[in-house]
Amino acid sequence: MERGEVSSGTTFLILKWTSGQDSEKRVSFPQSSQGYQESLPVLKESSHAQKKRKSLGLSSSQLSSWPAYAPGQIILQNRKPCTVPKWQCTNKEQFPLSISKPRYLQDLESHLRRELQALDFTKGKVQELKLQVAKMRKAVAEEYLRYLNECDARKLLLIDLNEMYRMKEEMKLAKFQDEKGEDSVKLTLALKTARQDLTKAQVELNTMKANYGDVVPRREFELQEQKYDVLAEKMMTLQKDFDDLQEEYDTMLDVHKQVSEERDQFYNDLINVQRTSTPRPSWDKCAEVIADGAERWNALSEGKTSDQLVDVLLEEIGAGLLRERDTFVARGRSEKVPVYLRCDGLVRNKKLTKKEVVATLREIWREKIASDQQKGKQSSLSEFFLSFFQKKYGEALAFDWTYSIYENIRLFKSNEAMSMFHHILIGKLDEGVYHSHLQQLGNLLKELSTIDTTNTGQLTYEQFTLALRAAFPQKTEEEIQKLVEAAGYKLESPSNTIMYKLLFLEDEEGNTEPLITKLKNQYVNEKQAYLRELRAELGTLMEVRPDDLRAAFCILDHGLSEQALDSYICYAFQVSKEQLDPAVSIPIEVLMQRLKAGDIRRQGPVSGDVKYLPPSLTIEEIEAPVNT
User: Fold this and answer.
1) CB-CB contact of 554 with 602 (8 Å)
2) Dist CA 105 CA 99 (whole Å)
3) Is 582 found in the same domain as 498?
4) What is the pTM assigned to this prediction?
5) Statement to judge: residues 300 and 271 lie in one domain
């Protein structure tokens, strides 16, 4: 320790010692003869020590602070193998650089300050006090240096402990690797090889991307190919449909062009007809000359065409003339005269009314059916017609009745009962048509009665329709619907019921309900359509043999029974089955007229589209009588 002075009169006590790092330390004690202010010792450090102190975050303007190292915080904590120690981590927490001085140093400094303040510098013991102070400063400096040395020693000890702990951890790691059988050199070599393989794989991957970047996988290619085939097939189908539609469209254009030309032609014809034809008659004028006036004429003319109104008017005029006649001139006994009119002279007019004529006709039908059933065969209506009156009124009055009945049924064509009897009587219709019509009505009434399980006489819309389908399985839905409407059912209220038995009644003049009239009209329409198809099947034949007719019927109607087929052929050739000669032929016109007069009906389902005639046709509009 050396003593030094400076110009300011301050005395320094210089202390030198050698630490672990050979740092030079100095403690200065400022001494002044003029002031009474005291200060704590100041430590003078070498440049190396100052750098070290700065690295610890200390300031040169302060009194050497207490060592800023906490031993408990520097020693390494326990850590797992193969891990970096926490003190080597870059983001480790910074330990506090300074801690407070020990308690006894603080008490010593406080004691010194109190002693200095208690001293009285005005007295004569100034030198002694200064000496005493100097000794005390020296003691404090020595104590302070001892603590600094202890601090440095602790630092070195902590460094050694940390190094030992690191070596211990490395030994544990090396031992762990030895237990696993892994060598650091081997691992390094494996890492190098892996990096080379990675580089090689990366090069190959880049090559594959460059060479096959635009290539798609086979699975995706096959999937797209399947989709393409499906779309191509759909396109072909749509193209075919389009071609068909285009063809149909062109056809429709041609048809439209033809229809337009026909429309223009018909329009021109209409203009010409309107220009040259006579005006339509005013049928209301007929009410003035008809018995019972306008009310009866309105009832007679309701729903009738001009041609039918002419017939009604002729019937009214003829009925008036017929009532005025008292006698008829007989037609003689020639073979051309029907047997029921074959007589000479004058016959008396019975002046029968419609009611009386219809009642007589009903009686004739009842007697004839009973007579035919009794004999077991069907007789001629013309012969039975005369015999009926001969049996009932005698030979003298029989022709009065036959002429009176004949003139009435010939006149009243609009009456269904009279008209059918007249056509059968003169041979224009076969009697089988009448019986067939009765059979149809009987079958329909039977089906209706079967569905009417409660026997109330009433049926709903659904029940009536079901009975019609069961009675007439060959009829179309349109025909069934027309029959339902004719029965009086309304589509807007199908839940209503009707008394079906009332549909089969006739009034005293032989007029039937609309349902019966509709059935008769449909029968005529179906028969005419059936015969048109048969004529088309026969083709260009001018002479028809039985085998030709049989083949045409078989092709046209698959449901035709053998018995019905034989009856149709025998009726067409007007011979029995035993007398039928396969070599005999008749003209096709005669054949068709005979078939039109007979009860010819389709037995099987309809084949193809059959164009039925309008339902307005009546039984009296059937073709001309057969020429035999």
Assistant:
1) no
2) 13
3) yes
4) 0.53
5) no
